[in-house]
Design goal:
two-stranded antiparallel sheet; Pemi-like Protein 1, Chain: D; Transition state regulator Abh; B_subtilis_Trans_State_Reg; 4 strands; about 90 residues
Length: about 90
């Protein structure tokens, strides 16, 4: 992990501000969820993405399907949108 030289203080409530430059780079927006975990002696912050989130619609559902060894997750609606786009490209 590369250090980027930004230091922040922890406030009285245990909060730390993530600098805007990092939030923009990692596409972390207001109200986004952040996953927090520990790896050895490091605290890792990562933008939270549910496992079965459709890459087209953003829907999370047990009805979503996993394709290409889990590299592509699609909801029924996402499949329909993708099929329509593929069909329009083939015409």
């Amino acid at each position: 992990m590369k250090s980027i030289g930004i230091v922040r203080r922890v406030d009285e409530l245990g909060r730390v501000v993530i600098p805007i430059e990092l939030r923009r780079t990692l596409e972390i927006n207001v109200k986004d969820e952040v996953e927090i975990y520990v790896e050895n002696d490091k605290i890792i912050l990562k933008k939270y993405k549910p496992n079965m989130i459709c890459q087209i619609t953003g829907d999370v559902s047990e009805d979503n399907i996993s394709l290409a060894d889990g590299k592509i997750i699609l909801s029924p609606k996402g499949i329909k949108i993708l099929m329509e786009e593929i069909e329009s490209q083939l015409k």
